[in-house]
Design goal:
heterodimer; A: about 500 residues; mainly alpha; two-stranded antiparallel ribbon; B: about 170 residues; transmembrane helix (chain A)
Chain lengths: ~500, ~170
């Protein structure tokens, strides 16, 4: 109870509300700028939140994360260029509606649906995180090792088109995670005598380089906006009663879909938005309107992508396993404050946990207020020249990398990771698995070795421990599902080819 | 989907037919596969030099790095084989604008290197201003001056003074 009261005290303090508002404004701007997204925003923000303390820092990050999911829809509606991948489905009906001269209406649906989705996801987080965490507290090291492996299998979903490239990146991330003093014996590994590497590769420097600097380097090679920009003046964002009546079902279904998919590792808003849109279309009385500016075509994906925020925080808080690159970045923030996410956080830092739980809901409401009041300004920010955005990212990256430990070494390292990230982007290697593996590397290794020490070197402990066995089986299923799907698709193609050949 | 599986039966060591882009992807992926193999082989070699565990049952500090590098090696070899079989893993179809990319990176490396001499805030101001000149647009000098002054103010005022970041 004390934790709840303390957390509410932090949230409703002047500083709490200020960081929520700043986070929301930054999130909307970052989400609205095509090419940027919550991952880049958070990676640039984290180093500067160190002085705020864990509660305020997490509140700011959650606010940014939630609002960036909504912000992506502004450019999707006005430029037909989704600001984030999760707003891709919104671009279809949002832009179509805006071309009919209803840009304001489209944005009002998006903002309202995002808020509804965010609140729903937050409530689900509030209800699910605690029971799951108390269950997870009973896990032993073998169980935790398997949970870490299960988290790593989300690489399969984050690999984009190529699983093999995703796995290479995951191996690279795990290798990076082993640099520094080893967690059990205390032996320095791969440090080359550099004391800066004794604590390991600074996660935030790698993060800023891989996500932000690589994007700035890619940006200098020109950004293409194909569709004509909607120049309608955007002002009020309040949804009419008729629109509420028309869209509430889609908002609800989108929220449920987003929350459930958000909980699954590797599945985020970019998948949930399409599933929610398809579901809403299948249930709609006028499915033919989809694609031509349907209100439900905006409400469903927007509710779902914001609901994934609460969903994605469930495994992070309950198990300590991030299911997405954005939540992996939040793990980095917690580590920066000397905390390790997981069920023990509920006993170690209850006020922080409740600040996250309640903060997720409040952040959605703050996003609504900030989005309503500052929308005309946000619409103007989107027209900032690429030059300013790209050099801005670089400047904040340099400052952010320096702020981690006040070492220029981290700045050089960050720039190096920037080059690696840029080349990976060019060669279509996914960056997200590296981050995920770097975060989970410590969890996997420390529990793997502790389990083996406790079993005196007997590997059977990973099979005999029921939790470990369950998560190892789930990991196998998670890894094999995309392979199985690919084989099925190939078989279907072959069958179609044979049928076409027979027809000719 | 960036990966377009376009395996061509019968193709062994040559890239799949499919135009200039596919051929370019072949070489890009071939180089990437070789780098991945070299990285994992190097990592494995270094892992073998790590001491064994002291406690009973402890697999030692080299165990996980070794397993990770062996896993990385296996996956990289699979990748190489698939590339050599002609599967197009995608890549950059357009030429990298080396001058601009290297220019932007070079400016910020110079910023980092000269920060200890003239101060990070001033370096960032100059660096960001000059960097905007790499981008096309109207009134580049005005934009460069405004951007440079703006970022110097942000670095010095917001981060140096307000957040008390001990900038060099």
């Amino acid at each position: 109870m004390d934790g709840i009261l303390q957390s509410l005290g932090v949230i409703f303090s002047f500083s709490g509300l200020a960081v929520l508002i700043i986070g929301a404004l930054l999130g909307i701007v970052i989400g609205a700028l095509p090419g940027l997204g919550p991952s880049i925003g958070l990676s640039l923000l984290i180093p500067f939140t160190y002085n705020l303390g864990p509660e305020l820092s997490m509140l700011m990050m959650i606010s940014l994360y939630t609002s960036a999911e909504y912000g992506g829809s502004i450019s999707a509606i006005l430029l037909s260029t989704p600001g984030t991948a999760a707003a891709a489905a919104t671009a279809i009906d949002g832009y179509a509606m805006a071309r009919k001269g209803k840009a304001n209406e489209a944005i009002s649906i998006s903002l309202t649906a995002s808020t509804v989705g965010g609140v729903f996801g937050g409530l689900a987080l509030l209800l699910l995180a605690m029971p799951l965490a108390s269950l997870a507290l009973k896990f032993g090291p073998a169980g935790y090792f398997a949970v870490g492996i299960f988290g790593l299998t989300s690489v399969a979903a984050l690999s984009g088109g190529s699983l093999v490239k995703g796995l290479i990146c995951a191996a690279f991330g795990l290798a990076l995670a082993t640099i520094g003093i080893d967690p059990i014996a205390g032996t320095p590994r791969f440090t080359f005598g550099l004391f800066e590497l004794y604590e390991g590769v600074p996660f935030l420097a790698a993060l800023i380089g891989l996500f932000a600097v690589s994007e700035a380097l890619a940006m200098i090679e020109s950004r293409v906006v194909a569709a004509p920009v909607i120049k309608d003046k955007v002002g009020h964002v309040f949804m009419s009663g008729a629109l509420w009546k028309e869209t509430w079902r889609s908002m609800l279904s989108g929220s449920v879909i987003g929350t459930l998919l958000g909980i699954l590792p590797g599945v985020g808003g970019n998948i949930a938005c399409w599933v929610a849109r398809d579901y809403a279309r299948a249930r709609d009385r006028h499915p033919q309107e989809f694609g031509k500016g349907s209100a439900n075509g905006i409400a469903a994906p927007e509710a779902s992508n914001n609901a994934t925020v609460g969903g994605a925080l469930v495994p992070l808080l309950a198990l300590g396993v991030p299911g997405s690159p954005t939540t992996a970045i939040m793990v980095g923030a917690l580590i920066m404050h000397g905390l390790h996410p997981g069920p023990q956080l509920f006993t170690e830092a209850p006020s922080l946990v409740y600040a996250i739980l309640f903060g997720t809901i409040i952040a959605s409401l703050v996003q609504y207020a900030a989005g309503s009041l500052f929308l005309p300004l946000m619409a103007r920010v989107m027209r900032l020249p690429d030059a300013v955005i790209a050099v801005g990212i670089m400047a904040f990256a340099v400052l952010g990398a320096f702020a981690i430990r006040n070492l220029m070494f981290d700045v050089y390292l960050m720039l190096g990771f920037g080059v690696v990230g840029y080349l990976m982007k060019k060669l279509r290697f996914p960056v997200a698995p590296i981050i995920l593996a770097m975060v989970l590397g410590y969890l996997v290794e420390s529990n793997y070795r502790t389990a083996l020490v406790s079993s005196q070197g007997d590997y059977m402990i990973f099979i005999t421990d029921p939790v470990s066995l369950l998560f190892l089986v789930l990991s196998l299923v998670s890894l094999l599902t995309p392979l199985w799907r690919r084989l099925q698709a190939r078989r279907m193609r072959r069958l179609e080819g044979t049928a076409n050949g027979a027809a000719h | 989907m960036t990966n377009q599986a376009s395996a061509v039966p019968g193709s062994n060591l040559s890239p799949a037919p499919g135009g200039e882009a596919t051929r370019k992807h072949f070489w890009q992926n071939l180089v990437a596969a070789c780098i991945a193999i070299a990285w994992n082989a190097g990592f494995l070699f270094m892992s073998l030099g790590l001491p064994a565990g002291h406690s009973r049952g402890d697999v030692g500090p080299g165990s996980l790095p070794m397993q990770v590098s062996v896993f990385g090696l296996v996956v990289s070899v699979v990748y190489l084989v698939q590339v050599l079989r002609g599967i197009d893993f995608g890549g950059s179809s357009e030429k990298i604008d080396v001058a601009r990319v290297a220019g932007l990176l070079g400016i910020f490396v110079a910023v980092a290197l000269s920060a200890n001499w003239i101060g990070l805030a001033l370096c960032l101001g100059i660096g960001t201003g000059v960097a905007t000149l790499l981008f096309p647009g109207e009134r580049p000098l005005v934009r460069a001056l405004a951007t440079g002054a703006g970022f110097w103010l942000i670095a010095w005022g917001l981060f140096g003074k307000l957040l008390e970041l001990p900038l060099p």
